[in-house]
Model the fold of this input.
Amino acid sequence: MPPFRLVASDIDGTLIRNDGSLSKRTIAVIDRLHDRGVPVVLVTGRPLRWLRQLYDQMAEPVPAICANGAVVYDPDTDEVLTASPLSVELLLEVTKKLREAVPGIMFAVEVEDGRSFFYEQAWPLRWAGENDTLRALTSPAELTSAPAVKLLARAAGFAPDEFYELVGRTLGPLAESTHSSSSALVEISAAGVTKAAGLAWLCEREGFTAQDVVAFGDMPNDVPLLTWAGHSVAMGNAHPAVRAAADEVTLTNDEDGVAAYLERAFDL
Done:
């Protein structure tokens, strides 16, 4: 048996295929790990309301670290175990700095632990079927009227990495900024809130250490997770920064890279 006692995996670009499906092979691997007493934890930038699409494909839902570490969720009880939102005061300061640095910047926020999404009028909304959880804001003041587990920022005319670097320079240590998109979209959390921090909280609660964990990811928001885990694996389709941070590289998500690695590691 390998030294791994817990599997932590990103979702998009990692555990699921590009069409949004969880393959039969991957489902079987998760089930076999469960039978061996090895928990699988989802560690994702997704909000709570986007987990159902994945859970509906699984025999049993598994715990999730959502919103890049800001929310730790137990699907068995539908309970948020802990949340680390940006305060109203921090939202005000962060949005002020970014509006000054990037004319035309657009914002949206994940609120109510990620169960609802509020967005500015200029925000390009690309999702359907969630109207009960989405709300267009009628004034800039509404954006910062409540704590948010994630602030999202978009801007036209930037490459993804270029915009991410600009936001990071502007905010410095004030807040955490990362990205996981192929467009100029940056995800902002309270200082110290990362995928690694969220998983570390859950592991401490459940009696695991970083050395017990094998972690999988594909985008820059996964780098803190991969550097924290005892062993880290980048997907074959991973961003160069993720490849550089990982101990190994597996197949792509469309080739069931997570399942293929775990089959070998656990002799499944």
